[in-house]
Amino acid sequence: MEAFLFALILTSIAGLSTTIGSVIAIIVKEPSKKFISLIMGFSAGVMILISFVELLQEGIETSTFLIGHTFFFIGMFLMLVIDVSISHKYEFEDKKSDSKNKIQKTSLLVTLGIFIHNFPEGMATFVAALKNVDLGIMLCFAIALHNIPEGIAVAVPIYTSTKDRKKAFFWSFISGVSEPLGALIVGLILFPFINDFVLGTMLAVVGGFMVYISLDELLPASRESGFEHLSIIGILLGMVVMAMSLGLL
Fold it and tell me: With 0-12 CB in 10 A as exposed, 13-18 as middle and 19+ as buried, what is 84?
């Protein structure tokens, strides 16, 4: 039960870091594109390295090379299905030319997309924390990093159109709360049946989730602002920081 609660706390921290993004959006109004590019790249670097070095390897070690990779690709395919079914995109720009109703509608659609996309991330953090506390903390850190820009993406258009800080904060909170909900679903359904094999294969699936999110979502968002070199620097920094963290543990 202690492991269950700790995993749930880590998942909540990762998910609700979207509210940090809303605070940044309210204070800064329009976050720097350089900031967005760097933090998205950094998050992608962290998630890619941890997926291949830790998550996929856990799946291979607790089963076989073939089974571990099979579940890894299953994870990527599941994220593809979710992405195609319920897509979302980041909206960092202050679209002053749009009507207030259109801006709010756009923000709510982004919120819905992020809410659904965050479910697998909540499951990922929860499962990783059950397997290994240090791994759970690192994954929590990686997911929290890219949830901050997600909070900005939700809060900017809401605050721009309404000037209502509470409303901007509320919707960013809603977009992140799906992560602890996803963790609860996994915990309540699978917790009695979890063993090393199940945890390992689930971590391989999680690795697939993380690589897909990094390649399909974080990297394009990091590079679309036009600061490609800053994006690469962020990726390298993220990988170096994660490699050093793994080496020290």
Answer: exposed
